[in-house]
Design brief:
mainly alpha, about 200 residues, 7 helices, elongated
Length: about 200
């Protein structure tokens, strides 16, 4: 004979089911607060940075121009992301957001460390492909928790980075303009039109 188990209460079973449903939804949800309008603004900043950086008399000033533009673009991206999330009623801080951010963080930290080392040894020639490849890798990995177009953007950045490697290093600024300017603007418009702003 099999011993009878004590039946579970309906409220306990319902609570367990709600926990399971919530965890499943968090795992399967995607980060949709990627800002299209913010991407356009970031792209315009990238185009402006490319134009200003090309006119700098020294490599250090070229680097400073791009770093200032990157800092401003990061703030713009975060502000537009928060606005889009708030308008859509999406929590800005949640499991999916953390996964998206963590996916992007490792390549970004690597890019910052490599940039510092390249600056320390005065090797500016490989900064453009490094930035494009690692930004693309960040979008590709973070994009695993977002809409498909984010992964496509990452692939475009990585393609630009590879192109920057096989072309003369003097073209680096042009590839940065194409990636951080043109690609950002084009996909920003696409996201704004097709993914809620």
């Amino acid at each position: 004979m099999v011993p009878l188990r004590e039946p579970r209460s309906v409220s306990t079973q319902a609570a367990d089911n709600l926990v399971f449903i919530r965890q499943t939804m968090e795992r399967s949800s995607t980060f949709t607060a990627v800002p299209g309008a913010g991407g356009v603004v970031m792209g315009v900043l990238g185009l402006a940075a490319a134009g200003i950086a090309a006119r700098q008399p020294t490599s250090d000033r070229w680097l400073a121009t791009w770093l200032v533009a990157a800092a401003i673009a990061a703030v713009v991206g975060l502000v537009f992301m928060s606005l889009k999330a708030r308008a859509a009623g999406i929590p800005v801080i949640g499991t999916t957001t953390r996964r998206f951010a963590l996916g992007m963080a490792a390549p970004f930290v690597a890019g910052a460390a490599i940039t510092y080392e390249l600056w320390a040894v005065h090797n500016f020639t490989v900064m453009a492909p490094t930035w494009l490849l690692l930004y693309g890798a960040g979008l590709l990995t973070g994009g695993m928790f977002s809409v498909r177009v984010v992964r496509v953007i990452g692939l475009c950045f990585m393609a630009a980075g590879l192109a920057a490697i096989i072309t003369p290093h003097e073209w680096g600024n042009l590839w940065l303009a194409i990636g951080f300017g043109g690609v950002q603007v084009a996909f920003g418009i696409h996201i704004a039109r097709n993914h809620g702003g």
